[in-house]
Write a structure and sequence with these properties.
By secondary structure, the protein is α/β, with parallel strands linked by helices. About 35% of the residues lie in helices and about 25% in strands. A hairpin with a 2-residue loop joins β1 and β2. The structure holds zinc ion. The site of zinc ion has 8 residues, from loops.
Amino acid sequence: MEDIKQKAFALMHKMQDINTQLARQNQLTYAKMYHPIRGKLINFKQFPYLVDIYEDTAKEIVVQKSAQCGISEYLVNRSFFLTENSKLVGLYCFPAQSQLNAFSHARVEQVIKQSPHLSELTGETNNVSLREIGTSHIYFRGMQDIKQIISVDADYLMLDEIDAMRQDYLPIVEKRLGGSTRKLKHYVSTPTYPNYGINKKFKEGDQREWYIKCDECGYLQYLDFFKNVDLKKEIYVCKKCKQPINTLKNGKWIPRYKGREIHSYHISKLMSSRSSAKELIKSFKNKAALQHFYNFDLGIPYVITGSRLQRDHLNAITSKSDYDMKYSGERCCMGIDIGVDINLYITQLINGRPNTLFAGTVKDFEELDRYMNIYNVAMCVIDALPETRESKKFAKRFPERVRLAYYPSMKMDIYYKKEVRDEIKIVDINRTLSLDYMYDDFFMQKIKLPKNIESVEDLYDQLTALIRVKEVDKTGNQVAKYIEQGADHYAHARNYCRVAEAILGEYDSDMFRATPSQKHDRAFSGGNKRMM
Ligand SMILES: [Zn+2]
Protein backbone atom coordinates (compact mmCIF):
# COMPACT_ATOMS: atom_id res chain seq x y z
CA MET A 1 0.00 0.00 0.00
CA GLU A 2 2.77 2.42 1.05
CA ASP A 3 4.54 1.52 -2.12
CA ILE A 4 1.59 2.54 -4.28
CA LYS A 5 1.24 5.80 -2.40
CA GLN A 6 4.89 6.57 -2.92
CA LYS A 7 4.65 5.74 -6.59
CA ALA A 8 1.59 7.94 -6.99
CA PHE A 9 3.36 10.75 -5.18
CA ALA A 10 6.43 10.39 -7.38
CA LEU A 11 4.24 10.39 -10.47
CA MET A 12 2.49 13.55 -9.31
CA HIS A 13 5.83 15.26 -8.82
CA LYS A 14 6.94 14.14 -12.23
CA MET A 15 3.77 15.57 -13.78
CA GLN A 16 4.40 18.84 -12.00
CA ASP A 17 7.94 18.88 -13.33
CA ILE A 18 6.69 18.30 -16.85
CA ASN A 19 4.20 21.12 -16.47
CA THR A 20 6.86 23.43 -15.11
CA GLN A 21 9.09 22.54 -18.03
CA LEU A 22 6.25 23.14 -20.44
CA ALA A 23 5.42 26.47 -18.83
CA ARG A 24 8.94 27.59 -19.64
CA GLN A 25 8.38 27.02 -23.32
CA ASN A 26 4.68 27.55 -23.81
CA GLN A 27 2.96 30.76 -22.85
CA LEU A 28 -0.50 29.19 -22.69
CA THR A 29 0.63 26.66 -20.05
CA TYR A 30 2.50 29.44 -18.27
CA ALA A 31 -0.64 31.58 -18.13
CA LYS A 32 -2.77 28.67 -16.95
CA MET A 33 -0.33 27.91 -14.12
CA TYR A 34 0.79 31.30 -12.90
CA HIS A 35 -1.49 34.11 -14.05
CA PRO A 36 -4.38 34.93 -11.73
CA ILE A 37 -6.96 37.59 -12.55
CA ARG A 38 -9.07 38.72 -9.61
CA GLY A 39 -7.97 35.67 -7.64
CA LYS A 40 -8.68 33.09 -10.37
CA LEU A 41 -6.42 31.68 -13.05
CA ILE A 42 -7.22 32.81 -16.59
CA ASN A 43 -10.19 30.93 -17.96
CA PHE A 44 -9.79 30.41 -21.68
CA LYS A 45 -13.27 28.91 -22.00
CA GLN A 46 -14.67 32.44 -21.87
CA PHE A 47 -12.16 33.66 -24.43
CA PRO A 48 -11.52 30.77 -26.84
CA TYR A 49 -10.04 33.16 -29.42
CA LEU A 50 -7.18 33.99 -27.04
CA VAL A 51 -5.68 30.48 -27.04
CA ASP A 52 -3.94 30.80 -30.41
CA ILE A 53 -2.77 34.30 -29.65
CA TYR A 54 -1.11 33.05 -26.44
CA GLU A 55 0.60 30.34 -28.44
CA ASP A 56 1.68 32.58 -31.30
CA THR A 57 5.47 32.92 -31.45
CA ALA A 58 5.69 35.35 -34.40
CA LYS A 59 8.25 38.14 -34.08
CA GLU A 60 5.61 40.77 -34.71
CA ILE A 61 2.06 40.47 -33.40
CA VAL A 62 -0.68 43.02 -34.03
CA VAL A 63 -4.10 43.03 -32.36
CA GLN A 64 -6.80 45.42 -33.59
CA LYS A 65 -9.42 45.07 -30.90
CA SER A 66 -12.67 46.13 -29.34
CA ALA A 67 -12.75 47.17 -25.69
CA GLN A 68 -12.43 44.58 -22.90
CA CYS A 69 -11.41 41.51 -24.80
CA GLY A 70 -8.65 40.16 -22.57
CA ILE A 71 -5.73 41.51 -24.59
CA SER A 72 -4.17 43.66 -21.89
CA GLU A 73 -3.84 40.54 -19.72
CA TYR A 74 -2.21 38.85 -22.67
CA LEU A 75 0.40 41.59 -22.96
CA VAL A 76 1.15 41.49 -19.23
CA ASN A 77 1.36 37.70 -19.27
CA ARG A 78 3.55 37.71 -22.36
CA SER A 79 5.88 40.21 -20.70
CA PHE A 80 6.26 38.01 -17.62
CA PHE A 81 6.68 34.92 -19.77
CA LEU A 82 9.42 36.40 -21.98
CA THR A 83 11.25 38.08 -19.13
CA GLU A 84 11.21 35.11 -16.78
CA ASN A 85 11.89 32.28 -19.20
CA SER A 86 13.96 33.85 -21.96
CA LYS A 87 15.57 36.47 -19.71
CA LEU A 88 14.54 39.21 -22.11
CA VAL A 89 14.35 42.89 -21.24
CA GLY A 90 10.92 44.34 -21.95
CA LEU A 91 9.71 47.83 -22.79
CA TYR A 92 5.99 48.27 -22.12
CA CYS A 93 4.58 51.55 -23.44
CA PHE A 94 1.36 53.42 -22.82
CA PRO A 95 0.27 56.70 -24.42
CA ALA A 96 0.57 58.67 -21.18
CA GLN A 97 2.27 58.32 -17.82
CA SER A 98 -0.99 58.68 -15.88
CA GLN A 99 -2.60 55.73 -17.69
CA LEU A 100 0.54 53.74 -17.15
CA ASN A 101 0.58 54.34 -13.41
CA ALA A 102 -3.02 53.22 -13.05
CA PHE A 103 -2.41 50.15 -15.20
CA SER A 104 0.79 49.17 -13.46
CA HIS A 105 -0.94 49.37 -10.07
CA ALA A 106 -4.23 47.75 -10.97
CA ARG A 107 -3.13 45.06 -13.40
CA VAL A 108 0.55 44.30 -13.07
CA GLU A 109 0.86 44.59 -9.31
CA GLN A 110 -2.31 42.59 -8.63
CA VAL A 111 -1.13 39.71 -10.78
CA ILE A 112 2.21 39.60 -8.97
CA LYS A 113 0.57 39.78 -5.54
CA GLN A 114 -1.90 37.02 -6.31
CA SER A 115 0.61 34.67 -7.91
CA PRO A 116 2.94 32.94 -5.43
CA HIS A 117 5.21 31.99 -8.33
CA LEU A 118 5.58 35.58 -9.58
CA SER A 119 5.86 37.03 -6.07
CA GLU A 120 8.82 34.77 -5.48
CA LEU A 121 10.49 35.92 -8.70
CA THR A 122 10.02 39.63 -8.18
CA GLY A 123 13.27 41.34 -7.27
CA GLU A 124 13.86 44.33 -5.02
CA THR A 125 13.09 46.83 -7.73
CA ASN A 126 9.37 46.60 -8.16
CA ASN A 127 7.69 49.92 -8.85
CA VAL A 128 5.34 51.32 -11.49
CA SER A 129 8.11 52.00 -14.00
CA LEU A 130 10.48 49.10 -13.47
CA ARG A 131 9.83 45.53 -12.40
CA GLU A 132 12.48 42.89 -11.89
CA ILE A 133 11.35 39.39 -12.78
CA GLY A 134 13.93 36.68 -12.11
CA THR A 135 17.23 37.83 -13.58
CA SER A 136 15.74 40.28 -16.08
CA HIS A 137 13.32 43.19 -16.01
CA ILE A 138 10.48 45.12 -17.66
CA TYR A 139 10.41 48.89 -18.14
CA PHE A 140 7.02 50.62 -18.11
CA ARG A 141 6.91 53.98 -19.85
CA GLY A 142 4.43 56.66 -20.94
CA MET A 143 5.00 57.75 -24.55
CA GLN A 144 4.34 61.42 -23.85
CA ASP A 145 7.88 61.86 -22.66
CA ILE A 146 10.04 60.38 -25.38
CA LYS A 147 13.22 61.28 -23.47
CA GLN A 148 12.40 58.65 -20.87
CA ILE A 149 12.25 56.05 -23.60
CA ILE A 150 15.37 56.76 -25.61
CA SER A 151 17.56 55.77 -22.66
CA VAL A 152 16.06 52.24 -22.58
CA ASP A 153 17.35 49.24 -24.54
CA ALA A 154 15.05 46.24 -24.82
CA ASP A 155 14.52 42.86 -26.49
CA TYR A 156 10.79 43.11 -26.84
CA LEU A 157 8.27 45.88 -27.16
CA MET A 158 4.67 46.10 -25.94
CA LEU A 159 2.79 49.06 -27.39
CA ASP A 160 -0.62 49.31 -25.76
CA GLU A 161 -3.21 51.67 -27.35
CA ILE A 162 -1.03 52.89 -30.21
CA ASP A 163 -3.81 54.97 -31.79
CA ALA A 164 -3.62 57.29 -28.80
CA MET A 165 0.14 57.66 -29.21
CA ARG A 166 2.02 60.20 -31.30
CA GLN A 167 2.58 58.25 -34.50
CA ASP A 168 5.90 59.93 -35.26
CA TYR A 169 7.26 58.49 -32.00
CA LEU A 170 6.64 54.89 -33.04
CA PRO A 171 9.82 54.51 -35.14
CA ILE A 172 11.84 56.09 -32.32
CA VAL A 173 10.52 53.55 -29.85
CA GLU A 174 11.07 50.67 -32.28
CA LYS A 175 14.74 51.67 -32.49
CA ARG A 176 15.12 50.71 -28.81
CA LEU A 177 15.26 47.08 -30.02
CA GLY A 178 18.31 47.86 -32.17
CA GLY A 179 20.81 46.08 -29.94
CA SER A 180 18.78 42.92 -29.45
CA THR A 181 18.96 39.66 -31.39
CA ARG A 182 15.27 38.96 -30.68
CA LYS A 183 13.44 42.22 -31.56
CA LEU A 184 9.92 41.07 -30.68
CA LYS A 185 7.15 43.60 -31.32
CA HIS A 186 3.56 43.65 -30.08
CA TYR A 187 1.09 46.31 -31.15
CA VAL A 188 -2.34 46.52 -29.59
CA SER A 189 -5.08 49.11 -29.86
CA THR A 190 -8.69 49.97 -30.34
CA PRO A 191 -8.71 51.35 -33.89
CA THR A 192 -9.70 54.91 -34.79
CA TYR A 193 -9.37 55.83 -38.47
CA PRO A 194 -8.74 53.65 -41.54
CA ASN A 195 -5.05 53.15 -42.38
CA TYR A 196 -4.01 54.89 -39.21
CA GLY A 197 -2.22 53.49 -36.14
CA ILE A 198 -3.28 49.93 -35.41
CA ASN A 199 -5.27 49.57 -38.63
CA LYS A 200 -2.18 50.45 -40.65
CA LYS A 201 -0.21 47.77 -38.76
CA PHE A 202 -3.09 45.30 -39.10
CA LYS A 203 -3.06 45.69 -42.87
CA GLU A 204 0.68 45.05 -43.03
CA GLY A 205 0.05 41.70 -41.35
CA ASP A 206 -1.71 38.51 -42.44
CA GLN A 207 -5.13 39.84 -41.25
CA ARG A 208 -6.69 37.04 -39.25
CA GLU A 209 -10.41 36.80 -38.58
CA TRP A 210 -12.07 34.38 -36.16
CA TYR A 211 -14.18 31.84 -38.08
CA ILE A 212 -16.91 29.69 -36.56
CA LYS A 213 -19.05 27.01 -38.15
CA CYS A 214 -22.85 27.10 -38.21
CA ASP A 215 -24.37 23.98 -36.59
CA GLU A 216 -27.38 24.16 -38.91
CA CYS A 217 -25.83 24.55 -42.34
CA GLY A 218 -22.12 24.03 -41.69
CA TYR A 219 -21.11 27.37 -43.20
CA LEU A 220 -17.75 28.63 -41.95
CA GLN A 221 -17.87 32.38 -41.28
CA TYR A 222 -16.37 35.22 -39.35
CA LEU A 223 -18.73 37.41 -37.41
CA ASP A 224 -19.95 40.64 -38.96
CA PHE A 225 -22.44 42.80 -37.06
CA PHE A 226 -24.26 43.75 -40.25
CA LYS A 227 -24.72 40.15 -41.39
CA ASN A 228 -24.77 38.11 -38.21
CA VAL A 229 -27.22 40.10 -36.09
CA ASP A 230 -30.99 39.80 -36.37
CA LEU A 231 -32.05 43.32 -35.39
CA LYS A 232 -35.66 42.35 -34.70
CA LYS A 233 -35.07 39.24 -32.62
CA GLU A 234 -31.91 40.74 -31.14
CA ILE A 235 -29.91 37.54 -31.54
CA TYR A 236 -26.88 36.33 -33.47
CA VAL A 237 -27.70 34.37 -36.61
CA CYS A 238 -25.79 32.50 -39.31
CA LYS A 239 -24.76 34.68 -42.26
CA LYS A 240 -26.07 32.10 -44.68
CA CYS A 241 -29.08 30.22 -43.26
CA LYS A 242 -30.13 32.94 -40.77
CA GLN A 243 -30.69 30.36 -38.02
CA PRO A 244 -29.53 31.27 -34.47
CA ILE A 245 -25.79 30.73 -34.03
CA ASN A 246 -23.70 30.23 -30.91
CA THR A 247 -20.93 32.80 -31.33
CA LEU A 248 -18.90 31.53 -28.38
CA LYS A 249 -18.14 28.08 -29.71
CA ASN A 250 -14.66 27.08 -30.71
CA GLY A 251 -13.51 28.69 -33.87
CA LYS A 252 -10.29 29.14 -35.73
CA TRP A 253 -8.22 32.06 -36.89
CA ILE A 254 -7.95 32.24 -40.66
CA PRO A 255 -5.57 34.75 -42.24
CA ARG A 256 -6.55 36.69 -45.31
CA TYR A 257 -2.94 36.72 -46.49
CA LYS A 258 -1.34 33.44 -45.54
CA GLY A 259 2.42 33.42 -45.11
CA ARG A 260 2.99 37.03 -44.12
CA GLU A 261 5.56 37.43 -41.35
CA ILE A 262 3.49 39.81 -39.26
CA HIS A 263 0.55 38.08 -37.59
CA SER A 264 -2.39 40.44 -37.19
CA TYR A 265 -5.66 39.69 -35.38
CA HIS A 266 -9.02 41.43 -35.32
CA ILE A 267 -11.15 41.01 -32.19
CA SER A 268 -14.70 42.33 -31.86
CA LYS A 269 -17.30 42.19 -29.11
CA LEU A 270 -19.28 39.72 -31.22
CA MET A 271 -16.72 37.11 -30.17
CA SER A 272 -16.99 37.89 -26.49
CA SER A 273 -19.09 36.33 -23.78
CA ARG A 274 -19.23 39.73 -22.12
CA SER A 275 -21.67 41.41 -24.49
CA SER A 276 -24.91 40.25 -26.07
CA ALA A 277 -26.45 41.00 -29.47
CA LYS A 278 -29.00 43.14 -27.63
CA GLU A 279 -26.33 45.33 -26.05
CA LEU A 280 -24.55 45.80 -29.38
CA ILE A 281 -27.80 46.79 -31.11
CA LYS A 282 -28.44 49.36 -28.42
CA SER A 283 -24.97 50.78 -28.93
CA PHE A 284 -25.46 50.83 -32.72
CA LYS A 285 -28.74 52.75 -32.42
CA ASN A 286 -27.05 55.55 -30.52
CA LYS A 287 -26.20 57.49 -33.67
CA ALA A 288 -24.39 60.22 -31.76
CA ALA A 289 -21.76 57.68 -30.71
CA LEU A 290 -21.31 55.83 -33.97
CA GLN A 291 -17.54 56.29 -33.99
CA HIS A 292 -17.46 54.70 -30.55
CA PHE A 293 -19.62 51.79 -31.69
CA TYR A 294 -17.36 50.96 -34.62
CA ASN A 295 -14.10 51.40 -32.73
CA PHE A 296 -14.87 50.05 -29.26
CA ASP A 297 -17.59 47.46 -30.04
CA LEU A 298 -16.69 46.18 -33.49
CA GLY A 299 -12.96 46.88 -33.30
CA ILE A 300 -12.95 48.43 -36.76
CA PRO A 301 -11.83 51.87 -37.94
CA TYR A 302 -14.40 54.44 -38.99
CA VAL A 303 -14.58 57.84 -40.65
CA ILE A 304 -17.57 60.07 -40.08
CA THR A 305 -18.77 61.22 -43.49
CA GLY A 306 -18.07 64.90 -43.67
CA SER A 307 -14.52 64.74 -42.36
CA ARG A 308 -13.52 63.83 -45.87
CA LEU A 309 -14.14 65.23 -49.34
CA GLN A 310 -16.55 62.94 -51.20
CA ARG A 311 -16.92 62.22 -54.90
CA ASP A 312 -20.38 63.79 -54.58
CA HIS A 313 -18.81 67.15 -53.73
CA LEU A 314 -16.75 66.97 -56.92
CA ASN A 315 -19.70 65.84 -59.03
CA ALA A 316 -21.79 68.71 -57.69
CA ILE A 317 -19.19 71.10 -59.12
CA THR A 318 -18.78 69.37 -62.49
CA SER A 319 -22.54 69.13 -62.95
CA LYS A 320 -22.67 72.96 -63.11
CA SER A 321 -19.61 73.21 -65.34
CA ASP A 322 -19.82 74.59 -68.90
CA TYR A 323 -16.38 73.64 -70.23
CA ASP A 324 -14.11 70.63 -70.90
CA MET A 325 -10.45 70.24 -70.01
CA LYS A 326 -8.24 72.73 -71.86
CA TYR A 327 -4.90 71.96 -73.43
CA SER A 328 -3.44 75.44 -73.40
CA GLY A 329 -3.94 78.61 -71.38
CA GLU A 330 -2.69 82.04 -70.40
CA ARG A 331 -0.99 83.07 -67.13
CA CYS A 332 -1.79 79.75 -65.46
CA CYS A 333 -0.81 78.30 -62.11
CA MET A 334 0.63 74.82 -61.77
CA GLY A 335 1.13 72.49 -58.81
CA ILE A 336 3.39 69.46 -59.15
CA ASP A 337 3.61 66.48 -56.83
CA ILE A 338 6.23 63.80 -57.32
CA GLY A 339 5.22 60.17 -56.89
CA VAL A 340 5.95 57.19 -59.12
CA ASP A 341 4.83 59.56 -61.87
CA ILE A 342 4.80 63.34 -61.78
CA ASN A 343 1.30 64.67 -61.09
CA LEU A 344 0.23 68.07 -62.41
CA TYR A 345 -2.69 70.31 -61.58
CA ILE A 346 -3.19 73.44 -63.68
CA THR A 347 -5.59 76.35 -63.12
CA GLN A 348 -6.26 79.77 -64.51
CA LEU A 349 -7.55 82.54 -62.28
CA ILE A 350 -10.63 84.17 -63.77
CA ASN A 351 -12.21 86.99 -61.75
CA GLY A 352 -10.17 85.84 -58.79
CA ARG A 353 -11.49 82.26 -58.89
CA PRO A 354 -9.46 79.24 -59.89
CA ASN A 355 -10.71 77.49 -63.01
CA THR A 356 -9.19 74.04 -63.33
CA LEU A 357 -7.90 73.57 -66.88
CA PHE A 358 -5.99 70.32 -66.65
CA ALA A 359 -4.86 67.48 -64.38
CA GLY A 360 -2.61 64.65 -65.48
CA THR A 361 0.74 62.93 -65.18
CA VAL A 362 4.06 63.05 -67.00
CA LYS A 363 6.97 60.62 -66.80
CA ASP A 364 9.99 62.91 -66.52
CA PHE A 365 11.02 66.39 -65.53
CA GLU A 366 11.94 67.52 -69.04
CA GLU A 367 8.31 67.15 -70.09
CA LEU A 368 7.37 69.75 -67.50
CA ASP A 369 9.04 72.47 -69.57
CA ARG A 370 6.51 71.90 -72.32
CA TYR A 371 3.62 72.42 -69.89
CA MET A 372 5.27 75.59 -68.58
CA ASN A 373 5.16 76.92 -72.16
CA ILE A 374 1.80 75.76 -73.50
CA TYR A 375 -0.06 77.01 -70.41
CA ASN A 376 2.20 80.08 -70.17
CA VAL A 377 2.55 79.26 -66.46
CA ALA A 378 2.98 82.39 -64.38
CA MET A 379 3.60 80.57 -61.10
CA CYS A 380 4.46 76.96 -60.39
CA VAL A 381 5.00 75.25 -57.03
CA ILE A 382 6.74 71.88 -57.11
CA ASP A 383 7.32 69.27 -54.42
CA ALA A 384 10.97 69.49 -53.29
CA LEU A 385 10.95 65.86 -52.18
CA PRO A 386 11.87 63.12 -52.89
CA GLU A 387 13.62 64.19 -56.15
CA THR A 388 15.26 67.31 -54.74
CA ARG A 389 18.02 67.42 -57.37
CA GLU A 390 15.62 67.14 -60.31
CA SER A 391 13.21 69.64 -58.78
CA LYS A 392 16.07 72.11 -58.27
CA LYS A 393 17.23 71.75 -61.85
CA PHE A 394 13.69 72.44 -63.04
CA ALA A 395 13.44 75.48 -60.75
CA LYS A 396 16.73 76.81 -62.16
CA ARG A 397 15.39 76.58 -65.69
CA PHE A 398 12.52 78.92 -64.69
CA PRO A 399 14.00 80.99 -61.86
CA GLU A 400 11.24 83.61 -61.83
CA ARG A 401 8.30 81.27 -62.10
CA VAL A 402 9.02 78.13 -60.04
CA ARG A 403 9.23 77.58 -56.31
CA LEU A 404 10.20 74.43 -54.41
CA ALA A 405 7.69 73.38 -51.77
CA TYR A 406 8.33 71.94 -48.31
CA TYR A 407 5.91 71.04 -45.50
CA PRO A 408 7.89 71.92 -42.37
CA SER A 409 6.19 72.27 -38.99
CA MET A 410 4.96 75.85 -38.82
CA LYS A 411 3.00 78.24 -36.65
CA MET A 412 -0.65 77.34 -36.78
CA ASP A 413 -1.95 80.49 -38.49
CA ILE A 414 0.69 80.97 -41.20
CA TYR A 415 -0.40 79.70 -44.63
CA TYR A 416 3.00 79.75 -46.30
CA LYS A 417 6.33 81.51 -46.16
CA LYS A 418 8.53 82.46 -49.12
CA GLU A 419 12.30 82.00 -48.76
CA VAL A 420 15.41 81.90 -50.87
CA ARG A 421 17.84 79.15 -49.91
CA ASP A 422 21.01 78.38 -51.90
CA GLU A 423 19.80 80.78 -54.58
CA ILE A 424 16.66 78.73 -55.08
CA LYS A 425 13.22 80.07 -54.42
CA ILE A 426 11.44 78.05 -51.77
CA VAL A 427 7.98 78.10 -50.26
CA ASP A 428 7.44 76.53 -46.84
CA ILE A 429 3.80 75.47 -46.57
CA ASN A 430 1.72 74.83 -43.47
CA ARG A 431 0.40 71.36 -44.29
CA THR A 432 -2.80 71.28 -42.24
CA LEU A 433 -3.83 74.87 -42.86
CA SER A 434 -3.13 74.74 -46.59
CA LEU A 435 -5.11 71.51 -46.96
CA ASP A 436 -7.95 73.12 -44.99
CA TYR A 437 -8.00 75.96 -47.54
CA MET A 438 -7.67 73.57 -50.45
CA TYR A 439 -10.60 71.38 -49.36
CA ASP A 440 -12.67 74.35 -48.36
CA ASP A 441 -12.64 75.52 -52.00
CA PHE A 442 -14.27 72.23 -53.01
CA PHE A 443 -16.76 72.14 -50.13
CA MET A 444 -17.82 75.74 -50.81
CA GLN A 445 -17.66 75.33 -54.60
CA LYS A 446 -15.20 78.17 -55.03
CA ILE A 447 -13.14 76.25 -57.53
CA LYS A 448 -14.34 75.32 -61.00
CA LEU A 449 -13.81 71.96 -62.62
CA PRO A 450 -14.10 70.93 -66.29
CA LYS A 451 -17.18 68.78 -66.79
CA ASN A 452 -15.09 65.85 -68.10
CA ILE A 453 -12.43 65.88 -65.37
CA GLU A 454 -13.65 62.68 -63.70
CA SER A 455 -12.13 60.83 -66.67
CA VAL A 456 -8.61 61.65 -65.44
CA GLU A 457 -7.34 58.36 -64.06
CA ASP A 458 -7.01 58.27 -60.24
CA LEU A 459 -7.88 61.97 -59.88
CA TYR A 460 -11.05 61.56 -57.80
CA ASP A 461 -9.54 58.79 -55.66
CA GLN A 462 -6.47 60.83 -54.88
CA LEU A 463 -8.27 64.14 -54.29
CA THR A 464 -10.47 62.40 -51.72
CA ALA A 465 -7.67 60.34 -50.16
CA LEU A 466 -7.02 62.61 -47.18
CA ILE A 467 -9.07 62.73 -44.00
CA ARG A 468 -8.85 65.32 -41.29
CA VAL A 469 -8.28 63.85 -37.83
CA LYS A 470 -7.37 65.06 -34.37
CA GLU A 471 -4.09 63.87 -32.93
CA VAL A 472 -2.28 64.36 -29.66
CA ASP A 473 0.85 66.52 -29.90
CA LYS A 474 3.88 66.47 -27.62
CA THR A 475 2.30 68.82 -25.13
CA GLY A 476 -0.77 66.60 -24.90
CA ASN A 477 -2.96 69.01 -26.89
CA GLN A 478 -5.26 67.88 -29.65
CA VAL A 479 -4.17 69.12 -33.06
CA ALA A 480 -5.75 68.65 -36.46
CA LYS A 481 -3.89 66.88 -39.20
CA TYR A 482 -4.54 65.13 -42.47
CA ILE A 483 -3.79 61.44 -42.88
CA GLU A 484 -3.87 59.63 -46.18
CA GLN A 485 -6.11 56.69 -47.04
CA GLY A 486 -4.20 55.77 -50.17
CA ALA A 487 -2.20 57.54 -52.89
CA ASP A 488 -2.82 61.29 -52.54
CA HIS A 489 -0.60 62.89 -55.22
CA TYR A 490 -3.33 64.92 -56.92
CA ALA A 491 -4.47 66.30 -53.57
CA HIS A 492 -0.99 67.70 -52.98
CA ALA A 493 -0.62 68.81 -56.61
CA ARG A 494 -3.84 70.82 -56.18
CA ASN A 495 -2.59 72.10 -52.82
CA TYR A 496 0.68 73.35 -54.35
CA CYS A 497 -1.28 74.84 -57.21
CA ARG A 498 -3.41 76.78 -54.74
CA VAL A 499 -0.29 78.16 -53.07
CA ALA A 500 0.94 79.20 -56.53
CA GLU A 501 -2.37 81.04 -57.03
CA ALA A 502 -1.96 82.80 -53.69
CA ILE A 503 1.64 83.80 -54.51
CA LEU A 504 0.48 85.22 -57.80
CA GLY A 505 -1.66 87.43 -55.61
CA GLU A 506 -4.69 87.69 -57.78
CA TYR A 507 -7.09 86.06 -55.44
CA ASP A 508 -10.27 87.81 -54.63
CA SER A 509 -9.85 89.16 -51.14
CA ASP A 510 -12.71 87.22 -49.59
CA MET A 511 -11.12 83.95 -50.59
CA PHE A 512 -7.67 84.81 -49.44
CA ARG A 513 -8.54 86.25 -46.06
CA ALA A 514 -10.90 83.53 -44.96
CA THR A 515 -10.41 82.17 -41.48
CA PRO A 516 -9.95 78.55 -42.34
CA SER A 517 -10.90 76.88 -39.09
CA GLN A 518 -14.33 78.50 -38.82
CA LYS A 519 -15.07 78.05 -42.45
CA HIS A 520 -13.72 74.59 -42.38
CA ASP A 521 -15.86 73.39 -39.53
CA ARG A 522 -18.85 74.91 -41.22
CA ALA A 523 -18.02 73.07 -44.41
CA PHE A 524 -17.60 69.80 -42.59
CA SER A 525 -20.67 70.02 -40.42
CA GLY A 526 -22.94 71.14 -43.22
CA GLY A 527 -21.09 69.53 -46.08
CA ASN A 528 -23.16 66.42 -46.37
CA LYS A 529 -26.55 67.96 -46.21
CA ARG A 530 -25.74 70.46 -48.89
CA MET A 531 -24.75 67.73 -51.25
CA MET A 532 -27.88 65.64 -50.90
ZN1 LIG B 1 -26.11 28.36 -41.11
